Structure formats: C-alpha cells, structure tokens
Amino acid sequence: MDLRRREFAALMLGGASALSLAGRADAQSDRESDPLPSWHAGPAKDAIVKFVHATTDAASPAFVPPAERVATFDQDGTLWVEHPIYTQIVFAFDRVPQVVKERPELADEPAFKAVLSGDRELIASLSMEELLSLVGATLTGMDVETYRDEVAAWIQDARDPRWNRPYTDLVYQPQIELLQYLRARGYRTYIVTGGGQDFVRAYSEPVYGVPPEQVIGTMFGLGFQPRADGKSVLVREPKLLLNDDNAGKPEGIHLVIGRRPQFAFGNSTGDRQMLEYAEAGGGPRLAMLVLHDDGEREYAYGPARGLPDSKIGTFPQSLYDQAMKDGWTVVSMKSDWKRIFAFE
Amino acid sequence: MDLRRREFAALMLGGASALSLAGRADAQSDRESDPLPSWHAGPAKDAIVKFVHATTDAASPAFVPPAERVATFDQDGTLWVEHPIYTQIVFAFDRVPQVVKERPELADEPAFKAVLSGDRELIASLSMEELLSLVGATLTGMDVETYRDEVAAWIQDARDPRWNRPYTDLVYQPQIELLQYLRARGYRTYIVTGGGQDFVRAYSEPVYGVPPEQVIGTMFGLGFQPRADGKSVLVREPKLLLNDDNAGKPEGIHLVIGRRPQFAFGNSTGDRQMLEYAEAGGGPRLAMLVLHDDGEREYAYGPARGLPDSKIGTFPQSLYDQAMKDGWTVVSMKSDWKRIFAFE
Q: Any idea what DSSP says for residue B99?
C-alpha cells in the first residue's frame, strides 16, 4: 500500500485515529522491510539481504535447509572495538598485580615487568607472543566457573578510556542488527574468535544473543580435579589446545560445528582462512570483511587502501585484493554504517 | 478411560467402526502416557520419568530452563553394541589393505601385521595402544568431507557377523526412545564418545537424530590445505588433539558446549568422569550406567557383579560401588529393557 492509498483509506475510515493507526502499521512495516536500519543502502547491505532471501526462501534454487544455516563471526574488530588493544588483554593486564602477588617470580618476565611499570611505550612495544604468554599466565589456574564469574564481574566494571563506557557498549550496532536478522531467518550465529573461548562466553549471551555452545575461540587444556568438598571441577591449564586464529578458525569450526558456514564475517588477516573455508563450500555463500576506515567515529587502520598500519587487526592490501578477486564484500565503516554504536 | 468404559462408549456409538476408533485412540494415548515402551517398569524407568518431570515442569522447584537442558550419552556400549570390538576398529581393519598399498612400510607394524594375517587370536591380543595407532594411521590423511563419505558408504554395507545386520541396526531401542523423549521435553541430546568425532558424525543424524554439532568425540588435528582446484579443505592429521575418554569427556563437553550436563549416561569406566562432572553441578541431575548383564540377547561383561571381565567397555566393581554410593542409576539390560533391538 503506497502513501496516497493509505491516506485515502484513513480518510475513508474517518479521521485522526485511523491515520494514527495507519502510521503505526507503517512503522511496523518499515521495520519489517528494513531489518538493518543502521546500514546505509549500498552494495554491502544489498549483498546481505539478497543472500538471506536466496538461502531462506523455500522457492529459491539456492535454498539452504534450516539445519545447515550457519553464520560465523569474528569478534574483535568485527563485532566490537579492538583498538587500541584487545579487551581480553586489558583484562589480563588488570590481573597482573594479583597474579604477581601469588607468583612473585613472574615479575621478572618482560611482559609483566612492562605492565607493572605502567610505561605505555614499553607496553606498546610488547610482541604478540609476549602478550600471549602473559595471557597464559594470568588467565589460567582457576576452574572454568570461577573464571567465568571473574570475567563477568570485570567486564561490568571496566571502562574503555576513550568513550568512558563499558567495553560491551562498544559493540557495533549494525552487526547486532545483522545477528538478529540472521537468527530471525533461521541462521545459527556463531562467534569464532582468536580471543579466549571462555572469556567471550562470559558475556556473549546478553551482549550478542550468542549462547556458550555457539562460541568458538582459543582453547586451553582443562584438567579434571577434585575440590575440597569432593566435587570435581575443570581447571584451566596453561596449555594451548587450539589457537583459533588463521587456519585455526576453520579447524575450530569443524571441531565444534562439523559444518561449513554459509556466511562468514571477519575484519583482518586472521579471518582469511575462515572466509576461504566458507566460500569453498560452493553454492550460496557470503564472505564479508569490515574495513576500519573511520578514524572519527571509531579507528582507521589497514594498511589496505593507504590506511595506517596496525599490529592489532591488520587488514593488509593483499587481503583487500583477494576479497576483490574472490567476490568477497568489504564493508566500509565510514560509508556503509549509518550508526556505529547504539549510544550514538 | 478404562477398557470397560471405552467398550461401553463404543457400543453406545454403535458397532465395529467406533470400537476400532476407540482402539486407535487408546494406542495413541498409551504412547503418550508411556514414552518409553521398551523399558520395563522399575527404578531405572522411574528415575528417568521423575527427572524429566522435575526439570521440565515450570511449576517444579527443580525446573531447568530449556537453554540449559543438556543430556550427554556415551555411544559404544551405551547407545549401540560395542562387542566383540568397537565398530570404528572394524572400519579401520577394513581399510588396512588399501592403506598398506599406499604406504607399504606400515605392513611391518604389529597391528597391521596382525590384521593382514587374519589371525583372530593375534588380533585379539593387540593392546588398545596398538589399535589406536592403527586407527591413527588408517583414518587420517584425507579431507573431512571425503572421510565422512567413506564412513557413510562403509557403514551402509558392513555387517555385524553375529546378527548379520548393519551395525546401525544394533542400536538399543530403549535408548532411541529415551533420546526422543528427552528431545520432546526440550533437552538437547549430545553424544560424547571415545570414538572418533567425525566417524560418529557420518551417521549420527539418521541413526540417533543427533546432528553433527552435537557429537563430541576424540578429535584429530586438522590441516587447512589448498586443493588442486584452488579450493581449500580440512585434512585429518595423525595428531591427537583430544582423547575424549575418561577426564577427556568433561573436557570435550566444556570445549564444545560450555555447559554442565543435567543428565549423563554411560556404561564403562571411561564414562566415570563425565558422570561425576554432571553430578557435581548440584540440583537436579541424573547419572546412569548400562550394565551389560544379558549374554543371551546381547553380551555379558563387567567385571562388576561377577560378570566376565572385558577389555572393551570395562565396568569394574569399583564403578558399581561408586554408583551405589553416589546415587547413580545402574540399568540392567536383562531386567530393565523389554526389548533391546528394534528388529526383535
């Protein structure tokens, strides 16, 4: 029903209350017709809507049965802000004083020394390997339920310094809409993160609507140990079981899901294999990458397309070229996203 | 409605067709009132029905929200026959000639030598370690999709020698009813097997109604490799990632689900930690074990309760004692199961 016909109907029905009813129906129909209000019209939004229609319309030749509707999303830089440093690393830093109190010998390790000094330049100079070793030392040794509770408590209190808001406010509103849209069309939405699986599980349900069994992440070995009360718990061991980054992403996806995703969304070189794996399944697949090209509203880094280089969430030109060659969709934060955060 | 009242109603309605209608309604009502027709009345069946009512009735103090309803089942010896040897080992044996053709150096390994000789005694004398090394050598090296197709083709053709039937006919009918009953009450049913995760995934959906993402099993590392056509695949590597037995079961459950099961069902010493883990969650939990005490209809082995000892699916007296002490339910195949197989 177009506007004129609706107005006409309202007049026929008589007056303001009918108009107002029609207005409400219109708003509802708008929401139904645009499930992605924070996305600008354009090729990225088109690609999503076309893909969803093609794979969920029973009459479509590209129809995908509900059981096979799997969409996988990287987290850091794809669902929420990853600059200036991954939130999980901030959590690990915050735990350093307590951990050093329990194990003073750690104070001499380079990463611990840097964090304890508070010297920003020294901290910034730490290699990813040094950071991961700090994560291994600070985020293991406790049972999985204690760990979950500690993460949940921390993430409620901690604040990102730039926006002075909880990190969980720094999720991208367009992506929240996309997750909801996919689920409404029968897709199961998984997070596939290089971050710790149990770190993300501690908040994934309230923040993203993603339950623990749909979080795939870097996995540590777990020891089955009796507690003082005779009950047994699973204790996080400093033993890397799966590094869920690069080729570890398709590996983790197979171990946890056992199906190839129809849709994969990432933002950096660590997501390349996940997108390749989804795409190689043939048929209707969608592979997408967020390009952080909005230094005003968020951050600008690549180094693809002449953006500044970055150690965190690197998006090299070679990945951009591969995306163009393979028909992957690159999402520009600047021009594809109307709104980045819900609080805007 | 009891029989006399129904007959009376039928007579009042007039004649044979009404009687037949009443009969059909009765059969339907029976099925509704007894979701477990292959289970004899008794403490095991009672424990199941009480547990399901307590955890799924919204008015019950022990109510469990649907998202948390997780039930985990061992496979070999719990859902299907595991004697005289695990079905997956038979599959591995059947692949030996082909694998030795490709890699002749394997012919000298003890397990390969035994299988190639066809000497039953020699094969029976192989240690579990030697068998697992044979599994590692025969069931890796191909991509996950090829492997799934090979398992699916084999399991359709292969026959168990005792019953001369497909192995998938040797699933326990009472357990199929239990899986269906639990799912009808909102439980997600997982298989948690010491067998290979991808072996079981190849048939779990048609046989048990369990989709690939709900199969947790022994995991091998996966390599992400380009194929000749430029598409990439995941190749099974002879590198054990998770031995999903004993303490590996709760570990695998946490990695894949991230929740503690409300209900765990096993049959041997390898399931002990899974049951302990479920039980230690507190609140309404059910832990069950099948005791193979029916040598006529299936097999008899323990050595608990004076049954013959067995290398496959050992159920020691200490496990039986622990079950009694901790209030776990031991299911006697002989006296708790009316019918063992659907084909009976």
A: H
Q: With residue B222 as reference, give the H or E element that holds it.
A: strand B215-226
**Which residue bears the tokens 């004899």?**
B40
Instruction: List, for residues A66-79, the tens digit of each pLDDT value.
Output: 999 999 999 999 99
Beta strands in chain A (DSSP E): 70-73, 188-196, 215-226, 232-242, 263-266, 286-291, 329-332
Q: How many residues are recorded in chain B? A: 344
pLDDT tens sequence across B126-135: 988 898 889 9
- What is the DSSP code (8-state) at residue A167? G
Euclidean distance between CA atoms B317 and B299, whole angstroms: 17
Contacts 24+ apart (CB under 8 A), A282-285: A282/B231, A283/A62, A283/A64, A284/A51, A284/A54, A284/A55, A284/A62, A284/A64, A285/A261
**Distance (Å, rounded) from C-alpha B255 to C-alpha B234?**
20
With residue B192 as reference, give the H or E element that holds it: strand B188-196
The pLDDT of A48-67, averaged and rounded, is 97
Instruction: Determine the residue of chain A that is closest to B246 in CA distance.
Output: A224
Question: Closest approach of chain B CAs to the CA of A247, in angstroms?
Answer: 6
Distance from the Cα of A306 to chain B's closest Cα (Å) equals: 29
Q: Which residues of B touch A231 (CB under 8 A)?
A: 280, 282
CB-nearest to A212 from B197, B212, B258 is B258
ipTM of the prediction: 0.90
Interchain contact A327–B (C-beta under 8 A): no
Sequence letter at residue A174: P
DSSP string, A194-255: EEEHHHHHTTHHHHHS--GGGEEEEEEEEEEEE-TTS-EEEEEEEEEEE--STTHHHHHHHH
Q: What pTM value is reported for the model?
A: 0.90
For B12-41, give one letter per residue: b (16+ CB within 10 A) or e.
Answer: eeeeeeebeebeeeeeeeeeeeebbebbee
The minimum CA-CA distance between B149 and chain A, rounded to whole Å, is 14
Task: State how far the alpha carbon of B332 is from the alpha carbons of A161, A213, B77, B170, B222, in Å.
Answer: 62, 33, 13, 17, 40
With tokens 């040094």, the residue in question is: A130
Asked if B130 is an interface residue toward chain A (Cβ–Cβ < 8 A), one would say no
Closest-CA residue of A relative to B199 is: A258
What is the phi/psi pair of residue A131, to 5°? Answer: -65, -40
| Nearest CA among A193, A220, A219, A221 for reference residue A208 | A193
